[in-house]
């Protein structure tokens, strides 16, 4: 049962958001995937609730009886109750989010070119990412590359102190000034990529700075309005594009007991303490891994737990004892941009081109569908050799608030 008719490869969402890939290239129809599994069927719909007493799953009001239930409904963007985040921030969890970010970026550049108000232009060209984890860092790197390589080509006529290699651009004034395009990454801690080593984080920080991304450490967001990000330090960033990558919370059908982070606690066999017929896998599962922490909310956990839960159900049906889940850590990767990434596996730390090559190979391998792989590889090769982004197509023009349609006007950036 899924509310979407496709499987989504979330690790490449940021490339859809930053106009590098088309949305269908990172999604795959569930029915096409299940074709080869004759004993599986698919129902598209929203799972609203579970009645564990009668062993019934409710899908949009329709009851489905089960013997065993495996819940893997994942997470959604968490706003931690901060005012304005849910209303004004863009998240990055699904295809709609990615398309909204792309539309917002492209719309902002188009309007910035036309407005005569310099304060409004600066707010339009200021893109703020909140959260320095892998998602925020990957998105910041992609926006940094757009700033460096795409803005001078698509909006020529401005001032480009850091023109791309070979970049002499025809004068077709008015253009956008590269210095006006600001990408700000706001992070509460004193470094990015908290789950990586200090040396990987420093490499990533230097690479982002080289792309012109501003890193604001030790800053806590207290409120987001439609035209500003407000920080605890009193600073205020005028922006129409705040992007929230600062955290997620579990989403599960009503009727299941949740613990911290909206996740569902299980025993090591991956089923509920209170009900051995309900299994939980992936981002939603809370099972202690190390030092009071649950398993990381990453794809390897979800893949391993999904298949482990299925095997435990089969073992029970065969009258065998259930086993305890053991996580095989597959390491961590984050890509920063062209030929730059960090990869860590145990004590092994790789940076730069080798890490980037490994990142490409792993992501292509796990992407579902031959056609998707071929198209993504084609797009990456195109971007690598041309410094271009293949799909700068605006789907829906975003209308930014203005004195004509809204009372609030942005203030200058502190
Ligand atoms: C931007 C981004 C980048 C990432 N990058 C990486 C990375 O580089 N490496 C890595 O290992 N991990 C990465 N992750 C994390 C990884 O994608 C997740 O850990 C993984 O997808 C979790 O799998 P899951 O099956 O638990 O949940 P999901 O993949 O989120 O799947 C949940 C499914 O449940 C469906 N669903 C939810 N609620 C309902 C409902 N009520 N009714 C019906 N259907 C429902 C959803 O439509 C979805 O299909 C990234 C995540 C994001 C958002």
Protein described:
It contains ten helices and 23 strands. The protein has 414 residues and is of the alpha/beta class. Strands 10-9-8-14 form a four-stranded parallel β-sheet. Helix 7 links the parallel strand 9 (182-187) and strand 10. Residues 1-4, 10-11, 13-14, 46-47, 72-74, 92-93, 135, 251, 253, 282-284, 297-300, 302 line the site of flavin-adenine dinucleotide (FAD).
C-alpha-based Rg, rounded = 23 Å
Bound molecules: flavin-adenine dinucleotide
Assess the beta-strand content as a share of residues: 15-25%
Helix content: 25-40%
Instruction: Identify the strand order in the major beta sheet.
Output: 10-9-8-14
Would you tell me the overall average pLDDT? 91
* Uncertain spans: 162-173
The number of distinct β-strands equals: 23
Largest sheet, if any? 4 strands, parallel
Structural class: alpha/beta
Shape: globular
The number of distinct helices, counting runs of at least 4 residues, comes to 10
- End-to-end Cα distance: 48 Å
Question: TL;DR of this structure?
Answer:
This protein has 414 residues and is of the alpha/beta class. The chain contains 10 helices and 23 strands.
Secondary-structure map:
Elements: E1 6-8, H1 13-17, E2 27-29, H2 30-34, E3 47-51, E4 56-59, E5 62-65, E6 69-71, E7 75-77, H3 85-88, H4 95-114, H5 118-124, E8 126-130, H6 134-154, E9 182-187, H7 198-210, E10 213-217, E11 221-225, E12 228-231, E13 236-238, E14 241-244, E15 248-250, E16 264-265, E17 278-280, E18 285-286, E19 288-290, E20 293-294, H8 299-317, E21 332-337, E22 340-345, E23 348-351, H9 352-366, H10 370-386
Parallel strand pairs: 6-17, 8-9, 8-14, 9-10, 16-18
Antiparallel strand pairs: 1-2, 3-4, 4-5, 7-15, 11-12, 12-13, 19-20, 21-22, 22-23
Helix pairs in contact: 4-5
Residues 1-4, 10-11, 13-14, 46-47, 72-74, 92-93, 135, 251, 253, 282-284, 297-300, 302 line the site of flavin-adenine dinucleotide.
